[in-house]
């Protein structure tokens, strides 16, 4: 009996909603990270410093790194990542923000049982 071929690659989708309680602290942390990056060219550093100073969402994008999220997971290697941040209107009571009702259909796992998209 042969085993069906399965991909070794997995797309992990994560969506976070953060409340920024101290925008200045976020901006300062992003500026410190930029200043500490020896591989960042001066022109790119100047552009990035302007972006994180003008927009807290941009500052968060510089502070949250997908590599950091998976670098300690044994047996995996990050192949590609993209992420973005934006300011949003957030109403936790709105059905639009129910994490259990993702726009992604439940998929069958190897045992044929679906797994919900939310935290559980």
Question: How would you describe what is shown here?
Answer:
- The chain has 120 residues and is mainly α.
- It has a domain at 22-74.
- 32% of the residues lie in helices and 3% in strands.
- The protein is built from 4 helices and 2 strands.
- It has helices spanning 23-35, 42-54, 56-63, 66-70; strands at 107-108, 114-115.
- Strands 1-2 form a two-stranded antiparallel sheet.
- α1 packs across α3 (56-63).
- The relative contact order is 0.12.
Topology:
Layout: H1 23-35, H2 42-54, H3 56-63, H4 66-70, E1 107-108, E2 114-115
Antiparallel strand pairs: 1-2
Helix pairs in contact: 1-2, 1-3, 2-3
Tell me the radius of gyration. Answer: 19 Å
- Strand content range: under 5%
Shape: flat
Enumerate the strands of the largest sheet in spatial order, edge to edge or round the barrel.
1-2
Gist of the model:
With 120 residues, the protein is mostly helical.
Give the tags.
single chain; 120 residues; mainly alpha; two-stranded antiparallel ribbon; 4 helices; 2 strands; flat; disordered C terminus
């Amino acid at each position: 009996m042969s085993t069906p071929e399965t991909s070794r690659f997995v797309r992990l989708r994560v969506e976070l909603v953060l409340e920024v309680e101290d925008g200045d602290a976020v901006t300062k942390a992003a500026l410190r990270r930029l200043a500490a990056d020896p591989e960042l060219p001066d022109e790119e550093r100047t552009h990035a410093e302007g972006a994180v100073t003008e927009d807290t969402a941009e500052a968060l994008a510089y502070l949250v790194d997908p590599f950091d999220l998976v670098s300690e997971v044994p047996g995996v290697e990050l192949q590609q990542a993209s992420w973005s941040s934006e300011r949003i209107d957030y109403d936790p009571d709105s059905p639009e923000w129910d994490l259990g009702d993702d726009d992604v259909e439940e998929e069958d796992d190897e045992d044929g049982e679906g797994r919900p998209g939310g935290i559980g």
